[in-house]
Write a structure and sequence with these properties.
By secondary structure, the protein is of the alpha/beta class. A 7-stranded parallel β-sheet has the order 3-4-5-6-7-8-9. β15 and β16 form a beta hairpin. The longest helix has 14 residues. The protein starts with 10 loop residues before the first helix and ends with a strand. The structure holds pyridoxal-5'-phosphate. The site of pyridoxal-5'-phosphate has 12 residues, from α11.
Length: 381
């Protein structure tokens, strides 16, 4: 990890950065500050860190230890493999929940790596209670109930079929009762109140079990949504949890790509695949070393922007696999040269803006960020 807060970088690091086509800087201090802000907003609720998809593309190996420094001791992954990888990165006393739960035959892996499954359907309940009987101890588990999103969790019919929770919970050590909101990013959406009311009813069936309902967005709803533990992912990484409000969180990524070549084109020249951009008058085109293979979405064709010296320049033409063409005519020629890194994410352009231009959400932009970037992690301490 590069800790730019501690003096000069190693020379090898400088060389690697100098030859990289694109540079992704991840600000662990921003992620830590976002964690603290979430903790302040969550009142007394514990704040877990959601680490799925390699910490939303930013790197679980660096993000998880940074959150540990802030006192985070509960984590969520989606896949079992992610949980296994995370186990080596956090203190042994930390709790790691695996959202997808125990698939058939995976109970030994959960036990070997001290992972707590989220039980989402009767099959998973049977898988885990069976493992508990076989190991002759009460095994920890989170129980997910569906309160209206119809994606994961025990349905009312599932619960009825399982019989009295007190009976099947006897084999387990229930650590958490959880559900997930479908519309928490829209504060006034009637689904929020409806799901919370449903959660309240179901909670009564699981007396004494700690509860969790809130993702990032729900941390910013009424405190009644917080319960005992909140589960933010996106907000840790700087995505605005309430898109209609100013973003209270710090952006955690900066992405820059280098100019590979610059050319002047004549009036009427076609640029890029499909000739989807035609020069209106003489223009100057800079080609940069990033493309859809790096997660710079093809939907940004003729739509996205980059920044040169803080000046916005538009994408001109189709986003290719490894390159993007920009119309840099607005920038003085002497400021444009091969090797110059232009800003794609950073102080002038937020993840959420790029997402809006591409017709998607910040979550998708972050989780698509590619593996070819030169990655640097900043943590001042
Ligand atoms: C992804 C996920 C979260 C985190 O959601 P954010 O919107 O990123 O905060 C929380 N809980 C569950 C069940 C999830 O799948």
């Amino acid at each position: 990890m590069t800790r730019t807060g501690h003096g000069a970088q190693a020379p090898q690091e400088d060389l690697a950065a100098a030859r990289a086509g694109a540079l992704l800087d991840i600000d662990l201090d921003a992620i830590r500050a976002n964690y603290r802000l979430l903790r302040a907003r969550a009142g007394g609720a514990e704040v877990a860190g959601v680490m799925k998809a390699d910490a939303y593309g930013l790197g679980m190996a660096q993000v998880a230890p940074a959150l540990v420094l802030e006192g985070c001791r509960t984590f969520f992954t989606a896949h079992l493999d992610e949980g296994i990888r995370l186990r080596a990165l956090v203190p042994a006393s930390s709790t790691i929940y695996v959202l997808h739960g125990p698939m058939p035959g995976t109970a030994p892996d959960f036990l070997a790596h001290d992972l707590v499954p989220v039980l989402n359907d009767p099959g998973q309940v049977h898988e885990w209670t069976g493992a508990a009987r076989a190991s002759r101890r009460r095994l920890p588990a989170a129980i997910q109930v569906d309160t209206g999103m119809s994606r994961m969790g025990l349905s009312p019919a599932d619960l009825a079929g399982l019989g009295a929770p007190a009976d099947w919970l006897a084999a387990l050590q229930p650590r958490l009762l959880m559900s997930h909101l479908a519309c928490a990013d829209v504060p006034g959406h009637p689904m929020n109140a409806a799901q919370r009311a449903r959660f309240e009813e179901l909670r009564a069936l699981f007396p004494g079990v700690p509860c969790s309902l809130a993702n990032s967005s729900a941390v910013f709803l009424d405190p009644a949504f917080h319960y005992d533990l909140v589960r933010p992912g996106a907000a840790l990484y700087g995505i605005n949890p309430q898109p209609e409000q100013p973003n209270p969180l710090r952006q955690a990524v900066s992405l820059r790509a280098r100019i590979v070549q610059v050319r002047d084109v004549a009036d009427g020249a076609a640029v890029g695949y499909g000739a989807r951009w035609i020069a209106e008058g003489p223009r100057r085109i800079a080609t940069i070393a990033i493309g859809y293979a790096d997660g710079w979405l093809r939907a940004l064709t003729n739509r996205g922007f980059a920044f040169v010296d803080g000046v916005r320049v538009p994408v001109a033409g189709t986003v290719s696999m490894d390159s993007v063409t920009l119309d840099v005519s607005a920038i003085p020629r002497e400021r444009i040269a091969a090797g110059l890194a232009v800003e794609l994410l950073g102080p002038h352009q937020h993840v959420d803006e790029v997402a809006a231009q591409a017709g998607t959400i910040g979550y998708e932009v972050l989780t698509r960020l590619g593996s070819r970037f030169h990655r640097r992690y900043r943590m001042a301490g």
